[in-house]
Every structure is written in C-alpha cells, then in structure tokens.
Description:
By secondary structure, this protein is of the alpha/beta class. About 20% of the residues lie in helices and about 25% in strands. The radius of gyration is 17 Å and the shape is globular. The structure holds zinc ion (ZN). The site of zinc ion (ZN) has 4 residues, from loops. It comes from Laceyella tengchongensis.
Amino acid sequence: MRWTVLGCHSPYPAPGGATLGYLLEADQKRILIDCGSGVLAQLAKMMPIHELDAVFLSHLHHDHISDFFVLQYALLVASNQQKRKRPLPVWAPAEPAHWYAKLSYQNLIDKRPIGTESVSIGKLTFSFHRTDHAIPCYAIRISDGKKTILYGADAGPKTDWLAMGRKPDLFVCEATYLHQELPAHPIGHLSAKQAAEAGVALQAKRLLLTHLYPERDPEPLGEEAQAVFPGPCQVSRIGMQIDV
Ligand SMILES: [Zn+2]
C-alpha cells in the first residue's frame, strides 16, 4: 500500500499547502481519504481526479471536506465528457445530517454512511472506530490482508486507540499542539507527545504526524514525538509518500 500526503494543515492551509487529505494506492485502486482545502490541486498532480475509485471522509468538519464539493464538479465535467460512467462511492458519517445531505450531487455520488460494519474494496478492508471529537469522527483502519494503516483522523485524549487493534504498520496521527500548549480543557485534539504515546500503546511500527498548524515550525513536533516513540517518526509534508 502506498500512502501519499496531499494535505496536512489545519485549520487552514499554509501558503501553497492544503488541509487534510491522503491518497491510498493499493490493489490497483486509488482511494482518497479526506478532502480538505487545496487537496484537489495536489491530487491532480498525481492522477486525473475523475479516475478515483472511492472516497472516505473521516468526519464532516470543513478542513476535511471543503474540496469535496469541488470534486463534485470534476465528476460532473467527466460525466458530461463520457470519461466517467459510474457514480463515485463515498463513505462518510451520517452526522451532522445537514452536511451529510450536501455530499450527494445529482447521480454522481454513491453515498453510504460510515458505521460499525467494515467495507471491502477488492482485497482492501476498511474498518471504522469513533474518536474523541466534537462531532462524530472515525479513525479508519485499512488492511490489505498483510499490512495495516491506521488513520487516526481528528482525535482527542479520550480516544480508545486499543479498541482499534494493535501493531499497525503505519499510524497516522494528529499532532495539533506541542504538549506545553495543550488547552486546559482538551477539545478533541492531541499534542505530538500524546500522539507518540498512542503510537507506543498501539505498538505501531511507524508514526506519521499530521493536522499541523500552518504557522508552526514542524520540527519541534517531530522532536517531541520522537522522544517518546521508539520507531521511525515523521512529520507530514505535502507530497510525502510512504510504502507500507
Ligand atoms: Zn475536526
């Protein structure tokens, strides 16, 4: 499986950057995980947008979905040009309902709610686990039968990571704060140190930090996490590819 960072900033992009989005290439499928602001411009460097096989949206906050509405237009154009003849399968939480309703667009989207049941696409299995966040948000565990990627989405410190299965080959976890900056009342996000601690508890083989404040130097985040996490630990940058 190949994991490409298309966007890693939050809550708005850095200059030339993008908020959250990742391309998963595996089993001859190309699947978009989250679709934040600026993600489509990065995706278009990799492939024709209309050739996507599926989309998963971890939750319906704008920094994870804003470009999804522009993706709908790319599908419309491709459909009019006979380049795409089938709806795009999209999985997303059904809440908040007014945002879930907006994910449909003519007959171009085959929309399905994320729930407790796992989803199979070819040899790939996607399973979903609620995180500690302000609205329903799901971590996504992806397996090709041999290796696993755990995408932690947005997740606060009450997230039950161990319910998601141990030893992911790659754990993609948010690092919104340096630990000393954590707000007194956590609001569904983690520090780099907490991300590393979750990685240790999960016995993750590799850690990738994401959900980065665009005006922060990313280096101290990596150093804070690497002081706790014993394995390879990287801070996301757009275009980074990890083969699992
Ligand atoms: Zn969020």
